[in-house]
Amino acid sequence: MKSLALFFVLVVLWLMWSGLYLPLVMALGLASCVLVVLLVRRLETIDHESVPLHLGWGIVPYWFWLIKEIVVSSLQVTRIILSPQLRISPRMVRLAAMPRGEVARVVLGNSITLTPGTLTTDIDENGVITVHALTSQSADGVLSGEMNRRVDQLEGKP
Predict the structure, then answer these.
(1) Domain chopping of the chain, boundaries
(2) Which residues of the chain have pLDDT under 70?
């Protein structure tokens, strides 16, 4: 099942990124996707981390929400940078991750880092995430727990 899911994702990404739909190019792309899946199976590296099927289709609405957050944060950081006063107030904050799984914690850490004005610096074994925030407002946004809650919902109940 995971091999099939990986193959499907590779084919879709290849089709989106290649932009060439000539028969020879499509055949070579399909062959390369099959080769990658065969190599990954041979290396026995297909697991719940490399193909996180357990996150399900709920990841799609999360991506749209994350894109909105990235745009809003980008505008806020742009306004700060272009301001003559450069009103920054850097802070380091610690956040207890709600998700229990490693994959979901990594998704949370990467989502925080993708959002301009915040950077995940550490995720310890207890699930405590250390974040550098450019302003008090961005630190409060991290501590509000909205992203934490949304990623926890992706993981579902055990």
Answers:
(1) 2-42, 57-155
(2) 47-57, 156-158
pLDDT digits (tens, 9 = 90+) for 92-122: 999 999 988 888 899 899 999 999 999 999 9
How far is the C-alpha of 94 from the C-alpha of 28, rounded, in Å? Answer: 48
The number of residues making up the chain comes to 158
Task: Determine the straight-line distance between the first and last CA of the chain, rounded to whole angstroms.
Answer: 21
Cα–Cα distance measured from residue 104 to residue 1, given in angstroms and rounded to the nearest whole number? 21
Which of 19, 48, 67, 60 lies closest to 106, judged by CA? 48
Half-sphere exposure of 147 (CA within 13 A, CB side): 30
Rounded to whole angstroms, the Cα distance separating 35 from 154 reads 31
The answer to pTM > 0.85 is no
Q: What is the distance between the alpha carbons of residues 103 and 79, in angstroms, rounded to a whole number?
A: 33
Residue 19 backbone zone (phi > 0: left; psi -120 to 50: alpha; other: beta): left
